Amino acid sequence: MNPEVRANQRDRLTTWRGAQGLAEDVRHYGQWMRDDAERRIGHLYPKVEVTAEMAKVRPDLKPYAGRKLTVIAWLWARTVKSPNPAFANVDVPLASTFMLSTKAGKEAYVEPVIENGGYRFTVKVGKPKDAEGAKNGTKLSRGANFQCLMSGTPIASDHIYGEANAGRMGARLMAIVAEGARGRV
User: Fold this and answer.
1) pLDDT at 143 over 90
2) Residues 180, 125: one domain?
3) pTM (2 d.p.)
4) Are residues 140 and 117 in the same domain?
5) What confidence tens digit (pLDDT) does each residue in 101-111 have?
6) Alpha-helix residue ranges (DSSP H) falling in the chain
7) Range(s) of the domain holding residue 10
8) DSSP state of 87
9) What gap in Å lies between CA 14 and CA 10, rounded to an integer?
10) Which of 28, 48, 85, 148 keeps 20 to 30 A from 118, CA to CA?
11) Is the pLDDT reported for residue 13 higher than 80?
12) Under a CB-based contact definition with an 8 Å cutoff, are residues 70 and 146 in contact?
């Protein structure tokens, strides 16, 4: 028999060990699907540039300073007007948690900073000082029971439903998740 034919037959009869063949197929088709999704909807996920200012506040971003990373998620909180008359002009967040990641060694959370009669969100890396508070966000108990971020006043579910039915429910960006070289940042 021709040696080339014999080599081709041997290659075709080679069996994969364990799930090597399946794993290779999954990697190949996963990459194909990702490339196709990028082609179709990639314009909806723009890149964000990591500035030196961002890296100064978040040391974990230093390797990415000056680079553009692909945004893979925007994390939003629903908002309603505060029931407290002193803050009736403020749209307060209804956040069931401020934790972004609870994985050991990769903890991240959003810290609301109250200033000048309003608030902003800052992303922090590590374990929060008030772990229980970060875990619960502005949620008080089961159902639609929250508290005002500005005053601590309870927000009843009736108030939330009333705001939503009147078309006054809004949204506020809490964080942006981007794809880094070794995971999400």
Assistant:
1) no
2) yes
3) 0.72
4) yes
5) 889 888 899 99
6) 3-13, 20-41, 52-57, 131-136, 157-165
7) 3-42
8) G
9) 6
10) 48
11) no
12) no
